[in-house]
């Protein structure tokens, strides 16, 4: 049975089809779940995709975090379920306090649309378990608010607890400590600014995102095997 | 006395919330404006910061209650305490 991934859709989300396509292309199954739902329909993993949830009004992710589905996502995360926020999804997860810190405007005050190199820093996260520390991946970025920041104590904790998931090789947005992605203490909740789902076919520039999404599917499959009764 | 629900007089308060960056947090917009001003000849400008103002009207029994509620709104939604500070001003009851 293929791992089942719930892809959360807010008004303004625009990467849900890319994520669903990528997940299915590498052997998973994807279901798009609207933000007004209260149930993840038995999914083994959750992706909060990119876009402009609720128009990014007030702050990116600020309104989205109060959507009914986010309660189910928080519950799923606290049960150890793999949850990945990509780009705007990362912003939503920080606003929901599932991940620490915040993504503020890029230091150059420009919307960035580019392909960048990121180095994998840890393999203890649900998104990087199949990668190797030191791997450099070429992934697209597409954001205005990707400049990660947090207080000094939080940064220290992220470093010592091995929770920095990926760093930019050449920091494009002013992000603190070159951070491109982080995870929670358990490693099951991950936020990443670059878009692995847009890097799954070499003919379109890069297939370096596959190793990340495959890691997520592995985490989903582990969960499905370990606790088949959960959330069903 | 059919109804046991006490009728609490409510007053309409105007609240003004000033959201600013916490000290030490990057303010890329403020920094950019600060770099732009000297180009217009204002070479004596420093400490430019850009925040936001949120105005709302709250019906509450008294000013204390209105402030407490707006403070809660700030903690939960209007500001992100990781990077933002906020200041609330409750003004004299507005004419309804």
Structure overview:
The complex is a heterodimer of chains A (232) and B (96). Chain A is an alpha/beta fold. Chain A contains five helices and eleven strands, in the order βαββαβαββββαβββα. In chain A, the strands form two sheets. Chain A has a nine-stranded mixed β-sheet with strand order 2-1-3-4-11-10-9-6-7, with helices on both faces. In chain A, strands 5-8 form a two-stranded antiparallel sheet. The mean pLDDT of chain A is 95. With 96 residues, chain B is an alpha+beta fold. Chain B has a single domain (11-91), classed as 2-Layer Sandwich (Mth169, Chain: A). Chain B contains two helices and three strands. In chain B, strands 2-1-3 form a three-stranded antiparallel β-sheet, with helices on one face. The two termini of chain B are 28 Å apart.
List keywords for this structure.
heterodimer, A: 232 residues, alpha/beta, Rossmann fold, nine-stranded mixed β-sheet, two-stranded antiparallel ribbon, 11 strands, globular, B: 96 residues, alpha+beta, Mth169, Chain: A, three-stranded antiparallel β-sheet
Structure summary:
The complex is a heterodimer of chains A (232) and B (96). Chain A is α/β, with parallel strands linked by helices and 232 residues long. In chain A, 24% of the residues lie in helices and 25% in strands.
SSE blueprint and pairings:
The complex is a heterodimer of chains A (232) and B (96).
Chain A: E1 4-9, H1 16-25, E2 29-34, E3 45-48, H2 68-78, E4 83-86, H3 88-95, E5 102-104, E6 112-120, E7 136-143, E8 147-149, H4 152-160, E9 164-168, E10 179-183, E11 189-192, H5 210-226
Parallel strand pairs in A: 1-2, 1-3, 3-4, 4-11
Antiparallel strand pairs in A: 5-8, 6-7, 6-9, 9-10, 10-11
Chain B: E1 11-21, H1 28-36, E2 52-60, H2 63-78, E3 84-91
Antiparallel strand pairs in B: 1-2, 1-3
């Amino acid at each position: 049975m293929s791992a089942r991934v719930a892809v959360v859709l807010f008004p303004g989300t625009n990467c849900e089809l890319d994520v669903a396509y990528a997940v299915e292309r590498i052997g998973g199954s994807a279901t798009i779940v609207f933000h007004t739902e209260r149930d993840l329909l038995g999914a083994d993993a959750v992706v909060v995709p990119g876009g402009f949830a609720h128009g990014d009004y007030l702050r990116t992710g600020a309104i989205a975090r109060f959507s009914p589905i986010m309660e189910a996502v928080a519950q799923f995360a606290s049960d150890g379920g793999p949850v990945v926020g990509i780009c705007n999804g990362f912003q939503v997860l920080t606003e929901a306090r599932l991940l620490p810190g915040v993504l503020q405007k890029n230091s150059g005050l420009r919307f960035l649309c580019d392909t960048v190199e990121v180095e994998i820093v840890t393999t203890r996260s649900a998104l990087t378990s199949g990668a190797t520390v030191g791997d450099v991946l070429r992934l697209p970025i597409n954001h205005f608010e990707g400049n990660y920041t947090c207080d000094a104590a939080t940064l220290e904790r992220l470093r010592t607890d091995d929770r920095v998931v990926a760093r930019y090789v050449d920091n494009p947005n002013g992000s603190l400590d070159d951070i491109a992605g982080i995870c929670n203490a358990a490693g099951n909740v991950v936020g990443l600014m670059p878009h692995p789902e847009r890097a799954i076919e070499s003919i379109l520039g890069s297939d370096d995102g596959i190793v990340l999404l495959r890691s997520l599917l592995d985490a989903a499959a582990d969960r499905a095997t370990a606790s088949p009764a959960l959330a069903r | 006395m059919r109804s046991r629900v006490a009728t609490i007089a409510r007053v309409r308060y105007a609240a003004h919330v000033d959201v600013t960056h916490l000290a030490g947090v990057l303010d890329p917009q403020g920094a950019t404006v600060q770099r732009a001003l000297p180009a217009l000849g204002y070479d004596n400008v420093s400490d430019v910061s850009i925040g936001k103002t949120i105005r709302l009207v709250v019906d509450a029994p008294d000013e204390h209650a209105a402030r407490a509620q707006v403070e809660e709104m700030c903690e939960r939604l209007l500001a992100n305490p990781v990077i933002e500070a906020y200041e609330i001003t409750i003004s004299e009851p507005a004419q309804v």
